TrEMBL record:
One CC-aspect GO term: periplasmic space
Family from the record: Belongs to the SoxA family.
Catalytic activity: S-sulfanyl-L-cysteinyl-[SoxY protein] + thiosulfate + 2 Fe(III)-[cytochrome c] = S-(2-sulfodisulfanyl)-L-cysteinyl-[SoxY protein] + 2 Fe(II)-[cytochrome c] + 2 H(+); L-cysteinyl-[SoxY protein] + thiosulfate + 2 Fe(III)-[cytochrome c] = S-sulfosulfanyl-L-cysteinyl-[SoxY protein] + 2 Fe(II)-[cytochrome c] + 2 H(+)
Secretion signal, residue range per the UniProt entry: 1-22
Name the UniProt record assigns to this protein: SoxAX cytochrome complex subunit A
Cofactors that this protein relies on: heme
Annotated ranges, domain Cytochrome c: 87-168
Native organism: Marinobacterium halophilum
């Protein structure tokens, strides 16, 4: 535990000035500026990993670590998510007992829409994620909800992401609804807040810790992090959702993990995905 904390503290001091750039605006409603935050994050990575094109950050750690990139390129020749995509497409197109299907619940029949998630729902006053609306679609049509972290919900989400590949993320924060800005701010605070017995924040690993070994792992960069989910992780041996990864990160900090699709995790996804606006959908993906 001391070794991990020492590594991350050393990394923090090494990039302290850059970290200030990565959180350019403040942590109150009066001072927060999402677009300034996004541009500052891009500048942070352009300075830290000079020469890496911004558009390459959809590839996660493989954008900034050449040895890992070679292994990943070889893996992508026979992607481990191919069967999940086939099953996801079949599940997506299988009618419910009432004769309706997922296509009836989503704009454009659910095809090519991943880049719009998560979004602020003004009527409900909350953030809506793709997996959340997949389950809501089921329940509205008399079906049982799916488990959040893996299995069918991840496969359906993966298929919907696949149909959206190449489309740039375009997450909106409505200017006429301060609740949306508050949701973004809550997600930002969550990302930078320390927690757990190891007293680590998301930023410690995925901002200061990008491409710095923590035991045998190289944390990926924050920029582009949500773009390639759902993913098949070698550690999991199966496909899983972004919120499954959030839960795992919490557990790794020796913190009591929040449940997938909790309000806090949905706001975190809102913040993170906004910060990747302009990058393209690259899911599903394969990771270690």
């Amino acid at each position: 535990m001391k070794t991990i904390k020492s590594m991350l503290l050393g990394a923090a001091f090494a990039v302290l000035s850059q970290t200030g750039m990565a959180a350019e605006s403040g942590f109150t409603l009066e001072t927060v500026n999402p677009e300034a935050d996004r541009l500052a994050l891009q500048a942070f990575y352009q300075e830290r990993f000079a020469g890496v094109p911004l558009e390459d950050y959809v590839n996660g750690i493989y954008a900034i670590d050449p040895p890992s990139r070679k292994q990943w390129d070889a893996l992508e020749e026979f992607p481990p998510y191919e069967f999940d995509l086939e099953e996801g497409e079949e599940l997506f197109n299988t009618p419910f007992a009432n004769g309706k299907g997922y296509a009836d619940c989503f704009e454009n029949g659910g095809i090519g829409i991943r880049q719009n998630y998560p979004y602020w729902n003004a009527e409900q006053g909350s953030i809506k994620t793709l997996e959340q609306e997949i389950n809501e679609c089921r329940e509205q049509n008399g079906e049982q909800p799916l488990k959040w972290k893996k299995g069918d919900v991840a496969k359906i989400s993966a298929y919907m992401a696949w149909t959206s590949r190449g489309k740039p993320f375009d997450i909106k924060i409505p200017e006429n609804d301060p609740r949306a800005l508050q949701a973004y701010l809550d997600g930002k605070k969550f990302f930078y807040s320390k927690r757990g017995q190891l007293n680590l924040s998301c930023a410690n690993c995925h901002l200061q810790g990008s491409r710095l070994y923590i035991r045998a792992d190289l944390p990926g960069p924050m920029l582009g992090h949500p773009t390639h989910f759902p993913v098949v992780r070698s550690k999991w041996g199966e496909i899983g959702t972004l919120h499954r990864r959030y839960e795992g990160c919490h557990r790794d900090t020796r913190s009591v993990p929040l449940p997938p699709q909790s309000d806090e995790f949905r706001k975190l996804e809102y913040f993170q995905t906004y910060m990747s606006n302009g990058l393209i959908v690259n899911g599903p993906g394969a990771r270690k």
